[in-house]
Amino acid sequence: MIKVEHLNKRYLTRNGWKTILNNINFELKKGEKIGILGRNGSGKSTLIRLLSGVEAPTSGEIHREMSISWPLAFSGAFQGSLTGMDNLRFICRIYGADIDYVKSFTEEFSELGDYLYEPVKKYSSGMKARLAFALSLSVEFDCYLIDEVIAVGDSRFSSKCKQELFEKRKDRSIILVSHSPSAIKEYCDNAYVLNDGSLYSFENIDEAYKFYNNNLPPK
């Protein structure tokens, strides 16, 4: 289980403190798949970073009783001067993963070829996303965090990612944050809505959609 209690996050800006997340509370059980709807700037990516441990909350608690991935396709932790393979070896040491398996899986899945042996700073954003996605799936987690990255690369590669994540790992937990109701409806059991820093829960996805649509900013 993952249990989030009274989670708050704020940043100091030139105009003073800005609250991004305000008193967030929810639970995720093993095997459960939840979606978090929110428009751009609502704090979705911040919440994902806090859940993964990339950032620390300003206050509140995140109780993790199962292993959680880093945000899929998140490449911010890569050391740019190292090669993709060097970054892979470092991740294997951190997570205690079998380097031979991770290397074999990443080589095949990422389709980066010789670029795996080039410094990551030479990669395009798409290549970094492919490496990060492949590494995320090569290390087994109980819960996968997804931040608007269902579509990685071309449609064929995107389909491969979906099959690997949603079919081969259908027994795992998922937290998907998105501004796309269709993605959440396709992959999740239920949905929350993040609006103005507050998280709202609903009995079903349709109720979450209704609230989300009623709180969209005017065009």
Number of DSSP E strands: 8
Return the string of H and E elements. Answer: EEEHEHHHEHEHEEH
Main sheet?
A: 5 strands, mixed
Tally the helices: 7
Oligomer: single chain
For the biggest β-sheet, the strand order reads: 5-6-3-7-8
Q: Give the rounded overall mean pLDDT.
A: 87
How helix-rich are the residues, as a percent range? 25-40%
Given helix and strand content, the structural type is alpha/beta
Morphology call = globular
The Rg value, from CA coordinates, equals 18 Å
Q: Enumerate the spans where pLDDT stays under 50 for 5 or more consecutive residues.
A: none
Strand content: 25-35%
Q: What separation lies between the terminal Cα atoms? A: 39 Å
Give structural attributes.
single chain, 219 residues, alpha/beta, five-stranded mixed beta sheet, three-stranded antiparallel beta sheet, 7 helices, 26% strand
Lay out the secondary structure.
Layout lengths: L1 E12 L2 E13 L4 E5 L6 H9 L6 E6 L19 H12 L3 H12 L14 H14 L4 E5 L7 H13 L5 E6 L2 H7 L2 E6 L2 E4 L3 H10 L5
Parallel strand pairs: 3-6, 3-7, 5-6
Antiparallel strand pairs: 1-2, 1-4, 7-8
Helix pairs in contact: 3-4
Structure description:
This protein has 7 helices and 8 strands. The chain has helices spanning 44-52, 84-95, 99-110, 125-138, 155-167, 181-187, 205-214, and strands at 2-13, 16-28, 33-37, 59-64, 143-147, 173-178, 190-195, 198-201. A 5-stranded mixed sheet has the order 5-6-3-7-8, sandwiched between helices. With 219 residues, the protein is an alpha/beta fold.
